[in-house]
């Protein structure tokens, strides 16, 4: 089937490539000429394990191509996926102007029946606006459908998430769109949840905020664990074994980051308010998350007495492992707070340092974890990259000025770290 993916950002590029890989004919459109040229050369503008190989394989097979022309994509495809960015405005509301622009261009280029599918995360009721705009700009051509097909991809495992999802959500307004979308997703072996458009839009918001809530919940529990001598890993295991709760997303740490959870949570609180509901529960989820990051700084300060002129080493900068994404990374909040208290920062991340330098030019970037530890008064592990699990911890300890170690993701065993001579703290243990 013929698919046009408009927006070759993270979601669009991964989804478009995977649609090609399951046998469809896909053209990815983006108005960023540099990006399209990069893709045409066989390079990819983001870091995602396996994506480059998959792009090249499908380009070679003739199933995947790139263009800057929406018209070209629209004319040749049945499915028009909108996967452009919806970045937060100052007030936290998503900026939907790119979606509007794309809808206008789709309308203007419409030549026959099409299914316009929202892939970007959008407020409930966006579907109605997309329909109105396409209709106006196509000079009242009404023979098209709008649908919502939210994505649940996680950075770092996006390809696998696309090809082996827990479910595929399809919000539709006609039988025809339902049948076509089911055919498009036929090669994907997963339950297909077919709903109306508004429900599909809400499923995305509700799922992301529920997962954020799980993380904040266990982070709040981690504070009680620290105060009562309990171990949050055991508590999470004990809770998570109950099938009704589930163990996933119960890892206490330094808070959630990334371009989805913080942004979507804020947006959903705003959407609820606009619909006349004060979603206080989610405001608490946000507050707990913020406090979890700042709490790490307080812990370090408690152990070192003063932070002024202290050298703090930071291991891991990306918002989570296996990505170079720095957007809303907890490391930024933590480092800025440490700097506010007068500390100087040395840091290392296996892949995100180029991006990190643009956000935090005023820290010392190191070649590896050992260089970070050299002369440091404390080290904080912020992102649990696999390579940190195999560190020569004795070497780390010996090179530090004071052996203070805050394990922000509970990677190490507290007893072992203490035996090695660290003044160690984890999160909630
Ligand atoms: C998320 C959703 O999982 C995905 O479905 C949606 O499409 C986009 O947003 P992503 O942002 O890539 O995906 O990362 P995810 O793996 O969900 O982690 C988000 C943040 O939560 C990270 O900062 C991670 O460190 C943190 N996290 C996750 C925890 O602190 N504890 C956990 O138990 C799980």
TrEMBL record:
It catalyses: UDP-alpha-D-glucose + 2 NAD(+) + H2O = UDP-alpha-D-glucuronate + 2 NADH + 3 H(+). It comes from candidate division TA06 bacterium DG_78. NCBIfam families: NDP-sugDHase. Transmembrane segments: none annotated. Substrate binds at residues 152-155, 204, 249-253, 257, 320. One of its GO terms (biological process) is polysaccharide biosynthetic process. NAD(+) binds at residues 30, 35, 86, 121, 155, 263, 327. Gene3D superfamilies: Cytochrome c1, transmembrane anchor, C-terminal (1.20.5.100), NAD(P)-binding Rossmann-like Domain (3.40.50.720). Its EC number is 1.1.1.22. The lineage of its organism: Bacteria, Bacteria division TA06. The active site is at 260 (nucleophile). Belongs to the UDP-glucose/GDP-mannose dehydrogenase family. PANTHER family: UDP-GLUCOSE 6-DEHYDROGENASE TUAD. This is UDP-glucose 6-dehydrogenase. InterPro entries: 6-PGluconate_DH-like_C_sf (IPR008927), NAD(P)-bd_dom_sf (IPR036291), UDP-Glc/GDP-Man (IPR017476), UDP-Glc/GDP-Man_DH_C (IPR014027), UDP-Glc/GDP-Man_DH_C_sf (IPR036220), UDP-Glc/GDP-Man_DH_dimer (IPR014026), UDP-Glc/GDP-Man_DH_N (IPR001732), UDPglc_DH_bac (IPR028357). Keywords: NAD, Oxidoreductase. Residues 313-414 form the UDP-glucose/GDP-mannose dehydrogenase C-terminal domain. It is an enzyme of class 1 (oxidoreductase).
């Amino acid at each position: 089937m013929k698919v046009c993916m408009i927006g070759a950002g993270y979601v669009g590029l991964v989804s478009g490539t995977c649609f090609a890989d399951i046998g469809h004919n896909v053209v990815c459109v983006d108005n960023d000429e540099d990006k399209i040229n990069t893709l045409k050369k066989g390079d990819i503008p983001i870091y995602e394990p396996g994506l480059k190989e998959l792009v090249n394989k499908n380009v070679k097979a003739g199933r995947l191509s790139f263009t800057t022309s929406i018209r070209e994509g629209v004319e040749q495809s049945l499915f028009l996926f909108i996967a452009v960015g919806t970045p937060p405005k100052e007030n936290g509301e998503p900026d939907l102007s790119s979606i509007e622009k794309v809808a206008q261009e789709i309308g203007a280029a419409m030549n026959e029946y099409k299914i316009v599918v929202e892939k970007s995360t959008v407020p409930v009721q966006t579907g109605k606006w997309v329909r109105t705009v396409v209709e106006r700009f196509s000079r009242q051509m009404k023979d098209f459908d709008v649908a919502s097909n939210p994505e649940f991809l996680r950075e770092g495992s996006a390809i696998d998430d696309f090809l082996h999802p827990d479910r595929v959500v399809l919000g539709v307004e006609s039988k025809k769109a339902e049948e076509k979308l089911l055919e498009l997703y036929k090669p994907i072996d997963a339950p297909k949840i077919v709903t109306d458009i508004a429900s599909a839009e809400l499923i995305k918001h509700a799922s992301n905020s529920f997962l954020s809530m799980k993380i904040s919940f266990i982070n709040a529990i981690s504070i009680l664990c620290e105060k009562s001598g309990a171990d949050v890993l055991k508590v999470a295991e004990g809770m998570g074994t109950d099938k009704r709760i589930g163990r996933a997303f119960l890892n206490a740490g330094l808070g959630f980051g990334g371009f989805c959870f913080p942004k979507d949570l804020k947006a959903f609180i705003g959407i609820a308010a606009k619909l006349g509901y004060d979603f206080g529960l989610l405001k608490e989820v946000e507050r707990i998350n913020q406090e979890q990051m700042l709490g790490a700084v307080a812990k370090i300060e408690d152990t070192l007495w003063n932070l002024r002129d202290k050298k703090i080493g930071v291991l891991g900068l990306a918002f989570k492992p296996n990505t170079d994404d720095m957007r809303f990374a907890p490391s930024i909040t933590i480092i800025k707070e440490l700097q506010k208290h007068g500390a100087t920062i040395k840091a290392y991340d296996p892949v995100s340092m180029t991006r990190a330098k643009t956000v935090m030019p005023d820290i010392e970037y190191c070649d590896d974890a050992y260089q970070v530890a050299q002369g440091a008064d404390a080290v904080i592990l912020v992102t649990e990259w696999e390579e940190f699990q195999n560190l020569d911890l004795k070497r780390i300890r010996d090179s530090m000025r004071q052996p203070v170690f805050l394990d922000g993701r509970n990677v190490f065993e507290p007893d072992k770290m203490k035996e090695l001579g660290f003044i160690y703290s984890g999160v909630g243990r």
